[in-house]
Design goal:
The protein is elongated and about 60 Å long. It has two domains: 2-10 and 106-188, TATA-Binding Protein (2-Layer Sandwich); 22-97, 2-Layer Sandwich (TATA-Binding Protein). The two termini are 23 Å apart. Helices cover 25% and strands 38% of the residues. The protein has helices at residues 26-32, 73-89, 119-125, 166-182, and strands spanning 2-3, 7-20, 37-38, 46-50, 55-59, 64-70, 99-112, 115-117, 138-142, 149-153, 157-163, 186-188. With 192 residues, it is an alpha+beta fold. The strands form two sheets. Strands 1, 2, 3, 4, 5, 6, 7, 9, 10 and 11 form a ten-stranded antiparallel β-sheet that branches. The protein is built from four helices and twelve strands; from the N terminus they run E-E-H-E-E-E-E-H-E-E-H-E-E-E-H-E.
Length: 192
Amino acid sequence: MVILLDYEITIQNIVMTGSFSEPIDLNDANTKLEGSKRNWKRFPGLSFKLKNPSAAFLIFRNGKFVCTGTKSTTKSQTAITAFLELLKAKGLVSNNCTYNCSVKNLVASVTLAVASISLEQFTNQFESALYEPDKFPAAIYKMDQSKATFLVFLTGKLICSGIENEETLKNTVQNFYTQLIEKSVTEKTPNH
């Protein structure tokens, strides 16, 4: 969690993608990994929830994987290492198997200090914003200059996704926050 003067950023989920250096027999993995799930007709991979450390994996025959459900890159790395050790222990890969991975997406919540957002004014000021209150309670805004997408709630809560590292996340949120202030779409909440 990063605490700043005007808002607070909390990473809620990190999505990492990567690959093991060896392919994995998914039929064998489904038998040996207790709790794994598969539906070959709908999805070509196998899902597995690691309990300690807690993380969810999608694994594919070619050794590629997706790891999600952690709140830091360190915890993701720890989970991937633990999962690889489990694969080795179950005989699904050799003891020489390694992996490489990178962050694909950070999902963070942002709480604005003592402010709410006028969503009508927001959608007027941010032309590409999409707001359909009868379908979803937040406005959706994709920033032009980055891959970031924000969900903007009336309460002053934001969800940011599409960022690949924490430094870019901080800079993107600061940039967006500055735009919110400059375009006067924030309002002081009562009692503040």
